[in-house]
Design a protein that fits this description.
It is a single chain. The chain has nine helices and 36 strands. It is α+β, with helices and mostly antiparallel strands. It folds into three domains: 273 residues, no CATH class; 240 residues, no CATH class; 218 residues, no CATH class. The protein has a nine-stranded antiparallel sheet with strand order 17-18-19-20-21-27-26-25-24. Strands 5, 6, 7, 8 and 9 form a five-stranded antiparallel sheet that branches. Helix 4 packs across helix 5.
């Protein structure tokens, strides 16, 4: 048992002396793939990834031999005997719209023994493959060339530090370029949001699309033309209802046009689903004024290049303060197009951890996926009587939003984001990037505090959060929630390392993935007292998994304890063999599944000998991520001889992100307490190079390390672009949802 594993077992609260996690009755061990440590029994033989792992049970010299050659495959690679079906793919009909682009979070609501509704998030547009394949997949052309020319001309006229692009909102309505921009932006926003699709399970246990009136889309422009506005609750409604203010007001009151940048989410016991709006700053202006009103649409102009498509909200005049929320919807109600609960806060939401305990308040956890982002908890004012009662949604209309402050000793507290909370920012000297963004007054937006003296001056000038915001007490509370990230910085919330998922474990504790401890010159960086890598790095790229337990296991507790003992990174450097952990899921037996989120442009990026550039400068940790290959799926058993060890279950196609893992139960099939299928999103295949042309591939060299730190060179064959899911030469790559099945209709583990 390695030191890494001992730490992980402590972190998990698990031991290796419980009943073995082994072969289920009637199953035999699979013989292909990569061998595991003697004595360990799994229901699958782990697939062979590009990197030697501690669980491979290979001596150092054997690792060099076995991993000297490796071929990356443009497919979803699974253990022998496991199969997958494509359930839905970009462009297919859903209700009166289509299945969107870059499917992410999945939530399965089983409505009967063999029927279900699957909620699917659509996060963003990958500009390269979307522009390259839109006409082929959707069947109509976009004025891409004409608009691109107009945007380039507008960008050349921009001076200073203004955001480049075309302020299409300011053009007259009859302007032909404005109409063309609207066409592109409308299609881009239709491909974002949320979709509800209906599924049916066959007697053989396979899921497939079925017909249902509940199928529908909530897009980035819902309400703009069809009247299907999203609803709102909570204090920020007082800001939305302003007819004038310091900044931009859209005059729609508490109605909201659409939802977009929908990343991860959560599901409730009463059958509703939550969708988290993440990087909305790409499409609308993120900054707000002290009264909570938005910056003008011109602050995020429309821009289109071969590699990006941003400012989609500009031409429609979307108000920035209405995006960056969590949306609740009931998949089974065909008339529900979503509600944004503003007590949950506005920031770059990644996921929603939902904790529901009878007789206790609701607790909703979410992270802000930015460098230096925070971990938040909403606690309802009212308590839960029946966890399955749909009336529980009303509890989200009143409560308090808290933000986490971690202590280096393994404890922490929740700070309320309310007007009376004292100003106490973290000095930049405690942050790896030595910079903290704070609310800027009276100009609005934020400024970068880069020395401790600025913090002292800020704290002398402003005593409480209420001093930073304008209006009545209700309006101040609404403005604080709208500006949650910068308000949290002002009161001393711990700056973290991109918290991407917040998942409630069977014991009520919270598991959090911190994807990357890197530094951003604009957003910020982690607190070095909490986020230090196993190699001592204070800008640790490869991420961690944390376990947080509320004191007395009470959802409303003001204090908690935490442990961090599952770092990403190479095993020889103290890591667990994965990089950039993202979504988590617990299976029916309480085991942990994880997918990772390495940046597409880093996947399979060549790593030269000695891991140095030609001029002798060492590669940055970010540029070393090429050694990990494609994004993947990991299985971490929490009991038995294999407890605490990450096993590679699957590997995604080229340039993709594996995301949104979601299990279907086997209860209705007479196999209670098991899972018979794993749903998974394959997001943005071909994101970097688009269509794989004529099965193109190239050979690349990688300086790899054995698990004991010896360097060897691996020759790796890497496809260029993607043809997934058809896998036919020159076919377009299409984001899709798949269902993964174990051999012979058995259980997943």
């Amino acid at each position: 048992m390695t030191l890494n594993r001992r730490h992980f077992l402590i972190f998990l609260g698990a031991t290796a002396t419980t009943a073995a996690c082994g072969i289920r009755p009637g199953q035999k061990p699979l013989t292909s793939g990569i061998p595991v440590s003697p004595g360990v029994k799994l229901a699958f033989q782990p697939v062979k990834g590009p990197m030697p792992l501690a669980v491979n049970a290979l001596a150092s010299d054997r690792q060099m031999t076995e991993f000297s050659q490796y071929e990356v495959v443009d497919d979803l690679v699974l253990p022998e005997g496991f199969t997958y079906d494509v359930i839905a793919t970009w462009g297919e009909k859903v209700g009166d719209s289509r299945f969107g682009y870059n499917n992410d979070y999945l939530a399965l609501v089983e409505t009967s023994p063999n029927e279900a509704l699957l909620s699917v998030n659509f996060e963003y547009i990958s500009a390269v493959p979307w522009q390259q394949t839109y006409q082929q997949v959707i069947g109509k052309a976009l004025p891409l060339r004409e608009v691109n020319t107009a945007v380039k001309a507008a960008t050349q006229a921009i001076k200073g530090d203004q955001v480049p692009g075309l302020n299409a909102y300011a053009l007259p309505d009859g302007n032909p370029i404005k109409q063309q921009v609207k066409t592109i932006c409308k299609e881009g926003l239709i491909d974002q949001g949320v979709g509800i699709i209906a599924l049916q399970r066959s007697p053989a246990g396979k899921w497939a699309r079925s017909q249902s009136t509940a199928e529908r889309r909530i897009t980035g422009i819902s309400g703009l033309e069809d009247g299907r506005y999203l609803k709102t609750t909570g204090p920020a409604v007082a800001i939305f209802q302003k007819t004038q203010g310091q900044g931009y007001v859209d005059k729609l009151g508490d109605k909201i046009i659409g939802t977009f940048q929908n990343c991860a989410g959560g599901i409730t016991p009463w059958g509703t689903v939550f969708s988290a709006e993440e990087n909305v700053q790409v499409q609308i202006p993120e900054p707000v004024y002290a009264d909570g009103t938005s910056f003008d649409p011109s602050h995020r102009p429309f821009n289109i290049t071969d590699e990006e498509l941003t400012g989609l909200g500009n031409v429609f005049g979307l108000a920035g303060n209405k995006y960056g929320w969590i949306v609740e919807l009931d998949p089974a109600n065909p008339n529900d197009y979503g509600t944004k609960h503003t007590w949950l806060g506005r920031y770059r939401h990644e996921a929603v951890g939902v904790r529901v305990v009878t007789g206790k308040p609701l607790a909703f956890y979410s992270g802000c996926d930015r460098r230096g982002g925070h971990l938040y908890k909403f606690v309802s004012k009212g308590t839960v009587t029946n966890p399955k009662d749909k009336a529980n949604s009303k509890l989200l209309s009143d409560g308090m939003l808290y933000v986490a402050q971690f202590d280096a000793g393994g404890t922490g507290r929740w700070i309320p984001l309310t007007p009376t909370t004292a100003i106490a920012p973290t000095p930049p000297s405690f942050l790896s990037g030595a910079m903290l963004p704070l609310p800027q007054r009276p100009e609005g937006g934020s400024f970068k505090a880069d020395d401790d003296a600025q913090i002292e001056a800020f704290q002398k000038k402003y005593k409480t959060l209420g001093d930073l915001y304008l209006g009545s007490e209700l309006e101040k509370q609404g403005a604080i929630l709208i500006d949650a990230h910068f308000a949290a910085n002002a009161v001393g919330a711990t700056c973290t390392a991109r918290p991407e998922d917040t998942e409630i474990a069977p014991d009520g504790s919270l598991f959090i993935t911190f994807t990357s401890g890197g530094i951003s010159k604009d957003d910020g960086s982690p607190d070095i007292r909490i986020f230090t890598g196993p190699d001592g790095s204070t800008a640790y790229e490869y991420g961690w998994i944390m376990r947080l337990a509320e004191d007395s296991n009470a959802p409303e507790s003001p204090t908690f304890t935490w442990k961090m003992a599952a770092p990403g990174g190479e095993f020889a450097s103290g890591g667990q063999g994965f990089a950039n952990p993202d979504n988590l899921a617990f299976d029916a037996q309480g085991n942990l599944w994880m997918v990772n989120d390495m940046s597409s442009d880093k996947l399979n990026q060549e790593v030269p000998a000695k891991r140095r550039e030609p001029n002798g400068v060492p590669l940055t940790p970010s540029n070393l991520r090429g050694i990990y290959g494609n994004n993947a799926i990991w299985y971490i058993p929490l009991s038995g001889e294999a407890a605490g060890q990450p096993y590679l279950f699957g590997i995604g196609p080229m340039d993709c992100e594996t995301t949104g893992p979601c299990f279907a139960s086997g209860d209705s099939l007479g196999d209670r307490g098991t899972n018979r299928a794993l749903f998974l999103s394959i997001q943005h295949p071909g994101e970097v190079n688009g269509i794989r042309k004529d099965m193109a591939a190239e050979m690349r060299q990688f300086a790899m390390h054995t698990t004991d730190g010896k360097e060897f060179i691996q020759t790796r064959k890497v496809p260029i672009g993607s043809n997934w899911p058809s896998k036919q030469a020159n076919d377009p790559p299409k984001p899709s949802v798949v269902a993964i099945y174990p051999p012979s209709s058995g259980a997943m583990v």
